[in-house]
Design goal:
CATH topology: Jelly Rolls
Shape: globular
Number of domains: 1
Oligomer: single chain
Distance between the termini: 43 Å
Radius of gyration: 16 Å
Strand content: 35-45%
CATH architecture: Sandwich
Strand order of the largest sheet: 1-2-10-7-12-5
Structural class: mainly beta
Length: about 180
């Protein structure tokens, strides 16, 4: 497994395993504490795992947490997703940068997203399982959502959204969220 810095988002990393494939399928390590530690992250900081299942076209996001934020490891364990990160840390050298990735069950790449960044994804295959490993318990009172189609962000979602939560459909613009954070 190797770790590569994501130039567009300071502190973000892409962890790329080496799948071993044969006639039975494949095997690969999807988490390695030593590799995580080698880039300065504490592997023991991740305390909660979750998984979501989506169908083609489902869009989830853009989400982030208020307060101390939430760092996460995201991996598409089955299918394929278009994954997006927006750096919303005012002191970051990559503040307001947007980066996108294609994550898939075939490659099993994992994306580390630092606290203070918004995250969203769109399912590109008929069935998509996305796994999350987060560094603190989820508190719905800290949930923040930003409009997926905010023109200021200009995210090139690959498919028209087929389904999303009401919260995501009604999300405020980035400008509105930033104004609320300043008050």
């Amino acid at each position: 497994m190797k770790a590569t810095e994501v130039p567009a988002i300071a502190g973000a990393y892409l962890f790329e395993p080496t799948p071993y494939a044969d006639e039975r399928g494949f095997f690969c390590r999807t988490f390695d504490a030593d590799v995580v530690r080698s880039v300065g992250l504490d592997p023991n900081a991740f305390i909660q795992d979750s998984v979501s299942r989506s169908v083609r076209g489902v869009l989830r996001g853009l989400h982030l947490r208020s307060g101390a934020g939430e760092a996460k490891l995201v991996r598409c364990s089955y299918g394929e997703i278009f994954d997006v990160v927006v750096d919303l840390r005012p002191d970051s050298p990559t503040y307001r940068n947007v980066a996108s990735f294609e994550l898939s069950g075939e490659t099993q790449k994992t994306l580390y997203i630092p606290a203070g960044c918004a995250h969203g994804f769109q399912a590109l295959t008929e069935t998509t399982d996305t796994s999350y490993r987060i560094d603190r318990p989820h508190d719905p009172a800290e949930d923040v959502t930003i409009a997926f189609d905010d023109p200021e962000l200009g995210i090139p979602w690959p498919l028209p959204p087929t389904s999303m939560s009401q919260r995501d459909r009604e999300a405020p613009s980035l400008a509105e969220v930033l104004k609320q954070r300043e008050s």
